[in-house]
Amino acid sequence: MTGQNGTLILAVDIGGTKMMTAVLSAEGQLLVKDVCPTLADEGVLSVIERLFMSIDGLLNQNNTEVSQLGGIGIACAGGIDSGRGIVVTPSPNLPDWHDVPLAKIVRDRYRVDTFLVNDASAAALGEYQFGVGRGASNLVLITLGTGIGGGIIANGELYLGACGSAAEIGHMTVDAKGPKCGCGNTGCLEVLASGPAITRDAIGRIGQGEKSSLVELVGGEVDSITTETIGTAARNGDPLALDVLTRAASYLGVGLVNVVNIFNPEMIVLGGGMVELGDLIIEPARKMMAERAFAISAQAVRIVTAQLGNEAGVYGAAVFALEKNIRRPE
Amino acid sequence: MTGQNGTLILAVDIGGTKMMTAVLSAEGQLLVKDVCPTLADEGVLSVIERLFMSIDGLLNQNNTEVSQLGGIGIACAGGIDSGRGIVVTPSPNLPDWHDVPLAKIVRDRYRVDTFLVNDASAAALGEYQFGVGRGASNLVLITLGTGIGGGIIANGELYLGACGSAAEIGHMTVDAKGPKCGCGNTGCLEVLASGPAITRDAIGRIGQGEKSSLVELVGGEVDSITTETIGTAARNGDPLALDVLTRAASYLGVGLVNVVNIFNPEMIVLGGGMVELGDLIIEPARKMMAERAFAISAQAVRIVTAQLGNEAGVYGAAVFALEKNIRRPE
């Protein structure tokens, strides 16, 4: 991370369930952080109020004046227009974030240059600069959870595309005849292999009368089945749980084939809650990739697990703000 | 194109049916060129012999000494390992090009630094520097013909990935339950929407007894049906021809959605013979992209036709060689 010594960066990562605020040094040291619930269902303004409280508390705690901040970086889920600093389309967990000019709102409050980036792109940048991706100039990060997001490092730089909404790996069609996705497209990777896709599949099949030890595992509360319970049932040999995960893994495998054939990356970094299902999902998907992708590219790629955990977003947001502020023409 | 004044670049583009050799100035002016048939079925060595004859004749004709050459750039179809200068896997039209160390072979003969790049990547670089893509820092070129190839400009630079085999846009799975592709993968865009996919579909359906004016159009020689004849029949209202093209267009549309969601490019440049089927294939595919891709990205992209025609490859190969020679660490 380059920048003037002594400059501090405020970094924010707004996810569907939690948001993290942090102060980092220009050298990339995380000095202090705060985590609080997003409570997205209370509405956008309420989330932003809570964000301001978290930031104010954090600056106080670290004895940091706003004047010491060299920039604010915000990572946020959803369809982001980085150039204009707007959350344009909502993500599954921030459902009413339509056209929210988040960078301007934060800039107006603190009077510090503020930059907005998609959370998965931020995580890719964080892992590239400070995590498992150090040295991998061509890297694709895929977050596997409620949604499936992506971040791209190309030729050693974050790739955001024309407006900052690139890397929607979860919204590439992998099955042209597949189900409708919430994004308006058809057969997206996300609607076939995300956490909700997996639980929906299991709950649906149980609803249609298929037997599974899952029912007992959740005490009859079928709607409370999660990817974790499905993982547990699968490890205990439950055929339905195994089948549901095999299906999702095959779509994830197709997704990996596509990423490898399109990007020929040195590294694919997998993050998000579903990484816990490693042997049940990641391993078969990796095997499919090795069998189907172009040999040159399949042999060149390492598929690894993210290293910075839930701090990847704030690390990446900080790097993003620093680089943007340095590169600005003015 | 940057480089020393006076330096000349020899550029080569080896396609399945023709190869082009050209001498360009470091400023990107094409000074002289030669086109000859590839005759790929005579074998790799024979093609390379013919390439040497074409190069020798061209240098002679232009009174160019080998010592005046600042580099040789070769664009070639197939799975290319740019770092090692090897054609690793063959393309449909160069079927026996397995592990051909093409850069070394040419370098050994002329004793000039030689650089190898995939032909579609070269075309993307050519269009970006000298064609329709000037100024579009985030650009994806897609060639639609016997194969479906791709080239990527990311953040204003050619993106080749870890070994130079990135941008295999034609080999992303768009239909996980689709047919096997020659590359070993399943449901690739190429096996569903390339020229051969379209003619195979039409010929197969006629073989199964479906009626079509195509049979008359080719004088009963059903195996001689081409995308051009299918285009003609479709424009005359033939239902089978229209249906076959609609199907291919829907897959191409899915491909465009994926490219737009993954790259958020300013521009998609379409090249290759199938561009002639514009209103029948490109237009419906573009419409599907506009309806299904993320709105931010769909609104940001312009879909245009390549401008440099069959010279895009030599322009791009020349730029590639110049940039490689300038950037080399030694």
CATH class membership of the largest domain in chain A: Alpha Beta
Tally of helical runs of chain A: 11
Biggest sheet strand order of chain A reads 3-2-1-4-7
Rough outline of chain A? globular
- β-sheet strand percentage of chain A: 15-25%
Oligomeric state of the chains in view: homodimer
Largest interface: A-B, 53 and 53 residues
Number of domains of chain A: 2
Query: Gyration radius of chain A, to the nearest Å?
Result: 20 Å
Helices and strands of chain A, in order, run as EEEHEEEHEHEEEHHHHHEHHEH
Spans of chain A of at least 5 consecutive residues whose pLDDT stays below 50 are 1-5
Q: How is the CATH topology of the largest domain in chain A named? A: Nucleotidyltransferase, domain 5
The largest β sheet of chain A comes out as: 5 strands, mixed
Helix content of chain A: 40-55%
Mean pLDDT of chain A: 94
List the helices and strands and how they pair.
2 copies of one chain form a homodimer.
Chain A lengths: L7 E7 L3 E8 L4 E8 L6 H18 L7 E8 L2 E3 L4 E4 L12 H9 L3 E5 H12 L8 E6 L3 E7 L2 E3 L29 H5 L1 H13 L6 H4 L9 H9 L3 H25 L3 E5 L6 H15 L2 H6 L1 E4 L6 H16 L3
Parallel strand pairs in A: 1-4, 4-7, 8-11, 11-12
Antiparallel strand pairs in A: 1-2, 2-3, 5-6, 8-9, 9-10
Account of the 3D structure:
By secondary structure, the first copy, chain A, is of the alpha/beta class. The first copy, chain A, has two domains: 8-119 and 310-327, 2-Layer Sandwich (Nucleotidyltransferase, domain 5), CATH 3.30.420; 132-306, 2-Layer Sandwich (Nucleotidyltransferase, domain 5), CATH 3.30.420.40. In chain A, 40% of the residues lie in helices and 21% in strands. Chain A contains eleven helices and twelve strands. Chain A has a five-stranded mixed sheet with strand order 3-2-1-4-7, sandwiched between helices. In chain A, strand 5 (79-81) and strand 6 (86-89) form a beta hairpin. In chain A, helix 3 (119-130) packs across helix 11 and helix 8 (239-263) crosses helix 9. The first copy, chain A, is globular and about 60 Å long. The first copy, chain A, starts with 7 loop residues before the first strand and ends with a helix. Chains A and B meet through helix 8 and helix 10 of A and helix 8 and helix 10 of B.
